[in-house]
Amino acid sequence: MTSTLYQQIQQFYDASSTLWEEVWGEHMHHGYYGPEGNLKKERRQAQIDLIEEFLAWGMESPEGQSLAEKSKFSQILDIGCGIGGSTLYLAEKFQAQATGITLSPVQANRAIERAQAAQLSQNVNFRVANALEMPFEDDSFDLVWSLESGEHMPNKIQFLQECYRVLKPGGLFLMATWCHRPVWPTAPELTDDERKHLAEIYRVYALPYVISLPEYEAIAIKTGFDSIQTADWSKAVAPFWNIVIDSAFNLKSILGLLSSGWTTIEAALSLGLMSQGYERGLIKFGLLRGLKPME
């Protein structure tokens, strides 16, 4: 990960995480609004529902049997952990040891505070680390979880290779990430207007680039994952952005924005980029599941 991009991501989340938590809570990811995206939900509940639905989807084998019976998940890694929302949730749900990594020292410190408040300090560990060069031994985790962090990775191949490396044989890899629509040979290449739209999203949210879900699947196959499964949940999560937009411009949010710096203000003013991206079919919310073969 280049030092410039590393710094951009770190600074973006250092500046915005406190405001996000104050206004929207501990979960820094989409919500789930039913398969067609038409269920009315309180936003934080929708975010919890996304975790649960994602787990249920990821733990079901192609034969329809639950992988939960085979997977103890005693050691969990949360890549791009934010302030620990998913890490703490998974540690408590599975009574597991969980580790969260982030590029933001502000996020890591806040996650440690939240773990102490939840009396889960003995079960979780948070650290600042680069997901492309993770400071863990091979075969360390039963579950590697990446909920909306893949879009920040400047090398998608290296990212999946690292996830594979630290996963135990028989372990489960679950990733949900921002994608763009599929392209050749199943659909036309991106238009100049679509590329311009994506470039604005990259600039505002400190992203190097995104790829399509079929491209992620091809990388996962080449990396060596087994039992690979993908899904497009764009409809299910798209309402999230309009809900955030509606909540972003109350007095509390505006006062917080004014004190959080220009990068956070610009990101808030640009929320419509994501909403419009879903509406035009350009932005996709892609899921990928893979198992590391037993040796």
Automatic annotation (TrEMBL):
- The segment annotated SAM motif III runs over 166-175
Give the span(s) annotated as SAM motif II.
139-147
User: Which SUPFAM superfamilies did the record assign?
Assistant: S-adenosyl-L-methionine-dependent methyltransferases
**Any one Gene Ontology BP term:** methylation
Q: Where is the stretch described as SAM motif I?
A: 76-85
Q: Does the keyword S-adenosyl-L-methionine apply?
A: yes
Q: Which Pfam families match?
A: Methyltransf_11
Which PANTHER family is this protein grouped with?
A: GERANYL DIPHOSPHATE 2-C-METHYLTRANSFERASE (PTHR44068:SF11), ZGC:194242 (PTHR44068)
User: What is the name attached to this protein's record?
Assistant: Methyltransferase domain protein
